[in-house]
Design brief:
With 286 residues, the chain is of the alpha/beta class. It is built from nine helices and twelve strands.
Length: 286
């Protein structure tokens, strides 16, 4: 009988709640496409059990894990090493297990940046960004844009403390100039804006008709308008921007690119991006 290896390499996601997280769909499709005996596990971990879950990850010899709400910040205390940009963002969404050590990364902003470079058609260096939101996605996007050379980022947020904290991080730790704008009204998009980003959950399924409170008549045809929401990919926000002639980038590409980056971090192999995109597109269409 020839030598056989029945051991699967394990990765996955810890979250609470986590049942609706679709990452397994694209990751399992990628493993299958490359003939890898890897499995992606969607695991519900309550906040009080995170330390035990991380110990379990190590005990099971897992190759890594994704973190989603509410674990992205808390997990940092259990890691041996944290990437510089993830430390600046203040959150980790991907853990890589290597040689008994756990390294924290954040692929949220990197996935966005890759989509922007692929589809934006304009240089990021020196660009002026108007960012809606200051939560986890917004922080990672803002930090990665700043590190990539963005010249000026305006952060609009309904909560003053969170918005000002993000602006302070950008101004103190990057070369990018940042300003805070309290989002307490319909906001006009400044004329010198190059990139407009909705980094909130407004418009996410099932509330697909919801729109961020901005003056849509101030969106110009030369703007690049981005939404982080993957479901539905073509949000009401992006439809409004398209009607104004703007170039748009949806959140589905960002989500897939995060997976592509995580796949490479875990396996060391280039991910089959189109396979992953097709798998997720079919899932959301269904």
């Amino acid at each position: 009988m020839p030598n056989r290896n029945y051991k699967a390499e394990l990765v996955g996601v810890f979250g609470y709640p986590v049942a609706e997280n679709p990452t397994v769909v694209m990751m399992e499709a990628a493993f299958h496409a490359l003939g890898l005996n890897w499995r992606y596990l969607t695991i519900e971990v309550k906040p009080d059990n995170l330390a035990d879950a991380i110990r379990g990850l190590v005990a099971f010899g897992m190759r890594g894990i994704n973190l989603t709400i509410p674990h992205k910040i808390e997990v940092m205390k259990y890691l041996d090493e944290i990437a510089d940009d993830a430390r600046l963002i203040g959150a980790v969404n991907t853990v890589v297990a290597e040689h008994g050590r756990l390294r924290g990364e954040n692929t949220d902003g990197k996935g966005f940046l890759r989509s922007l470079k692929e589809q934006g058609g304009m240089p990021i260096s020196g660009s002026k960004v108007f960012l809606l939101g200051a939560g986890g996605a917004a922080r990672s996007i803002a930090v990665e844009l700043a590190l990539a050379g963005a010249g000026h980022i305006v952060v609009a947020n309904r909560t003053k403390t969170r918005g000002e904290d993000l602006v302070k991080t950008l101004n103190e730790s990057t070369q990018c100039r940042a300003d805070f704008l309290l989002w307490d009204r319909q906001l006009s998009i400044p004329e010198d804006t190059d990139i407009l980003v909705n980094a909130t959950s407004i418009g996410l399924f099932p509330d697909t008709d919801a729109l961020p409170a901005i003056e849509y008549r101030t969106i110009r045809p030369d703007l690049v308008v981005c939404d982080v929401i993957p479901n539905p990919p073509r949000t009401a926000f992006l439809k409004k921007a398209e009607a104004r002639g703007a170039r748009t980038i949806d959140g589905l590409g960002m989500l897939v690119n995060q997976g592509v980056i995580g796949f490479k971090l875990w396996t060391g192999l280039e991910a089959p991006r189109e396979v992953m995109m097709e798998a997720l597109s079919k899932e959301f269409a269904g």
